[in-house]
Specification:
This protein has 498 residues and is of the alpha/beta class. It has 20 helices and 16 strands. The structure holds iron/sulfur cluster (SF4). Iron/sulfur cluster is lined by residues 35, 37-38, 41, 206-207, 212-213, 216, 218-219, 222.
C-alpha cells in the first residue's frame, strides 16, 4: 500500500520512517561505486577540505551535448510530461523505498518514451544516461538500474532496458543496456552495503587503487591521512594486489617495507609466483626514498649526452579532447642555449599552435614542420609517451615521407623515461606535476590540470561564435600549457645538474 509523501511526487509505504538524514541518492551511489570512502566523506567529511575538480562540469557539459541529440519538439518537464505522454521527459525527481526502511532518491535527468503499458496508457518510460570514457562500466549499469527501478515504481510497469549515450568522434551513439533481474539484485546488494557503510562512524579505508584518487575532490584530505598512516598504497608501484601480497608476508606499512632487505622480500614474494619477486628491489628503494624524503640515484653513469651537448632544444606538450581524439593545442618552447648553462628565461620563446578543427590539420602540420625544421639539430623533449605518438600520427596522416618520420623519431627524448631509469624520488607518483612540484616548480594558476584545460577549451569553442563570454579561457589554456612545457624543462635541467 502506498501513500503520497508531503514532498511532491513522492510515494512510500505506509508505516515506514522517512529517513531524512544520510539520504541515499544516485549521486551518493555513484560516489560509493567509485570509492566507498568517497561516499562516506560526502556525508561526514569537512567540505572545506574538498577540492574543486573540472570533472563534474565536463560530465555535465557532455550530458547536455548528448541529450541535445535526442531533443525533439514533443518533450516536457517532470512527471506531468509522463502523464501527458510526451516523447521525452526532463528532470524527474523520484523517491521510493527500494530497500527496506530506506527511501532512495533519484534525480533522473532524462526519460524516453518507449513501448509498454504504464498507468498512463499504452506506453512506458526508460532512463537515459550520458557516459564519458571508452567503456560501459559497473557505475553506468547500476545507475541505470536504479533509474529503472524508480521508474517502475512510478509507472507500474517493468523497465527492461536503459539507454547510454556517448560521443564517438563527433557523432552521438546510443547503446541499449538490458536491466535484468540479476543487475537489479546487484543494485539492491550495493544499496544495502552503501547503507551499512554510511551508518558506520568510521570512514572506509583509503582505496588501494590510488589512480582513482587523482581525479577525486577528496584527494588532498586522503593523501594526508595515507601519509600519516604510512599506507602502502602511498608507494609508487604498489596497487591493490601488491598491497595484499605484502600484508600476507607481514609488511603492513611504508616503514616496514623500507627496512626489509630486498633479497629477503624477493624470497617471500616468490612464493606467490616468480614475477612477484621481480619488483622487490624497486618497491623497497621507493619506500626508502619516501620515508627518508631523499632521492636515490639508481645508476651512477648517466648517459644523456643527446641533449647535454645540443646547442638548444624544443620542449613539446599537447592538450587534447580525448572523447573526440582531438589534439587541440600543440605547445612548443624553444630554448636557444645548451641546458648545462644557466637557463636565461628571457630567451625562451613559447609558441602555442592551435588546431581548431580535428579534420583540418594540413595548416597545423605545415606550421609544426616549419618550426621544427628551422632548428633541425634541436632534440624535442617531452614528458610521457603521448606527444611523440600524436605528432608521428599527424605526420603520417599528412603524408610525411619515411625519412622525415624516421628523423623526427630520433629527435624525441622522453624525460619521464629518463627520470624512471635513473632516479628513485620521494614522490607518490612520477607524473609531471608531482616531480616538477618536488623540484620546486610552481604552476602560475592554482588547481589546474588537463581536465580544467579541456573544460576551458570546450567552453571557449562553444561560445566563440556567439559572444565573448569565455574569451579569457584561451589565454588560461596557453598559460597552463606553457607551464607544462616549463615544468618539463625544469625537470630536464634538474637531471643534468645532478
Ligand atoms: S581520494 Fe581516493 S581514497 Fe579518498 S575518497 Fe577519493 S578515491 Fe577514495
Amino acid at each position: 500500500m502506498e501513500k503520497l509523501c508531503y514532498e511532491r511526487n513522492t510515494h512510500y509505504s505506509l508505516g515506514m520512517k522517512c529517513k531524512k538524514s544520510k539520504q541515499i541518492n544516485n549521486h551518493l551511489l555513484r560516489s560509493w561505486i567509485q570509492c566507498k570512502r568517497k561516499a562516506w566523506l560526502e556525508i561526514y567529511g569537512d567540505k572545506h577540505k574538498k577540492l574543486w575538480t573540472a570533472h563534474s562540469s565536463l560530465q555535465l557539459n557532455h550530458q547536455i551535448d548528448c541529450f541535445h541529440h535526442l531533443s525533439q519538439k514533443n518533450y516536457g518537464i517532470g512527471i506531468q510530461a509522463c502523464k501527458d505522454g510526451k516523447n521525452i521527459a526532463y528532470g524527474i525527481r523520484l523517491k521510493y523505498p527500494l530497500i527496506e526502511n530506506r527511501i532512495i532518491k533519484g534525480n533522473l535527468p532524462l526519460l524516453r518514451k518507449t513501448s509498454g503499458e504504464s498507468i498512463w496508457g499504452k506506453f512506458s518510460y526508460q532512463p537515459v544516461l550520458a557516459r564519458q570514457g571508452k567503456k560501459v562500466t559497473r557505475e553506468h549499469r547500476l545507475i541505470l538500474a536504479m533509474g529503472g527501478l524508480l521508474i517502475k515504481s512510478l509507472q507500474k510497469y517493468k523497465v527492461s532496458a536503459g539507454l547510454l549515450l556517448h560521443k564517438e568522434n563527433e557523432n552521438i551513439k546510443i547503446e541499449k543496456i538490458r536491466l535484468t533481474d540479476k543487475l537489479n539484485q546487484e543494485l539492491i546488494d550495493a544499496l544495502l552495503s552503501l547503507e551499512k557503510d554510511i551508518e558506520s562512524s568510521n570512514p572506509p579505508p583509503i582505496t588501494s587503487n590510488r589512480k582513482k584518487c587523482t581525479i577525486c575532490s577528496w584527494r588532498k584530505d586522503c593523501a594526508s591521512v595515507a601519509i600519516k598512516e604510512g599506507n602502502l598504497s602511498e608507494v609508487s608501484g604498489i596497487g591493490a594486489k601488491r598491497e595484499l601480497l605484502l600484508s600476507k608476508v607481514g609488511i603492513n606499512n611504508i616503514e616496514d617495507l623500507s627496512k626489509i632487505e630486498h633479497s629477503k622480500l624477493r624470497e617471500k614474494l616468490e612464493i606467490f609466483g616468480t614475477h612477484h619477486g621481480d619488483i622487490s628491489k624497486q618497491i623497497v628503494l621507493q619506500s626508502k626514498a619516501q620515508v627518508t624524503n631523499k632521492a636515490i640515484k639508481l645508476k651512477q653513469e648517466i648517459l644523456i649526452n643527446d641533449f647535454t651537448k645540443s646547442k638548444g632544444l624544443f620542449i613539446y606538450d599537447i592538450e587534447s579532447d580525448p572523447d573526440i581524439k582531438h589534439d587541440f593545442l600543440h605547445g612548443f618552447i624553444r630554448l636557444p642555449n645548451n641546458l648545462t648553462n644557466e637557463i636565461d628565461f628571457k630567451t625562451i620563446k613559447y609558441s602555442p599552435l592551435l588546431n581548431f578543427e580535428k579534420n583540418n590539420e594540413s595548416f597545423l602540420w605545415k606550421r609544426i614542420k616549419r618550426k621544427l625544421n628551422h632548428n633541425k639539430e634541436f632534440p624535442i623533449l617531452h614528458y610521457g609517451e603521448t606527444e611523440p605518438i600524436s605528432l608521428l600520427r599527424l605526420a603520417e596522416r599528412q603524408g610525411a615521407k619515411t625519412h622525415e618520420i624516421e628523423s623526427l623519431k630520433k629527435r624525441f627524448i622522453d624525460i619521464h623515461l629518463l627520470i624512471r631509469e635513473y632516479w628513485c624520488l620521494p614522490v607518490r607518483n612520477y607524473g609531471l606535476k608531482s616531480i616538477a612540484e618536488w623540484i620546486g616548480f610552481e604552476w602560475k594558476q592554482s588547481n589546474v590540470d588537463g581536465a580544467r584545460a579541456l573544460l576551458w577549451w570546450r567552453q571557449w569553442k562553444k561560445s566563440r561564435k556567439l559572444n565573448n563570454m569565455y574569451s579569457k579561457n584561451l589565454n588560461s589554456i596557453f598559460e597552463y600549457n606553457r607551464d607544462d612545457c616549463l615544468a618539463t624543462l625544469m625537470i630536464a635541467k634538474w637531471l643534468i645538474d645532478q
